[in-house]
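Journal club prep — side note

Before the paper discussion, L.F. wants everyone to see what a predicted structure for a comparable chain looks like in token form. Sequence:
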Amino acid sequence: MPTTEQAQMALPGFLESVRVADRALLDVARTHRLRPMEAYLLLILLDEDGAVSTARIAARIAASSSQAKQLALALQLRGLITRRDRTGLTELTSEGRREATDLAAEVVEVLQQRLTPLDAATAVLAVIA
């Protein structure tokens, strides 16, 4: 187990890796003509097993239920998700699943390119501290 001092020294590297990941999602989202939170929601829905509630989405994206609903409605207009009116249960359409899968693959590729120069051990020490 790393000491507090080791964790403090590792923290800048870890924060840099978080920033790189955030920037990678932003850059890939733009190529798909998505806002970053829309891309994030697609990736979250790809990770879910079936339809999920607005409350679950809100919790996963750290936003209000109202914000989660607005994101879902925007993606529904693009045909990427379906949202049941009364229950608010949301899931990917076939097209949305393809888009989310492509998005995930591209984000992973960009992350592999951009994180290579970072010291992975430093980031891990910061996380487990």
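L.F.'s comment for the group: The chain has six helices and two strands. Keep this in mind when we get to the figures.
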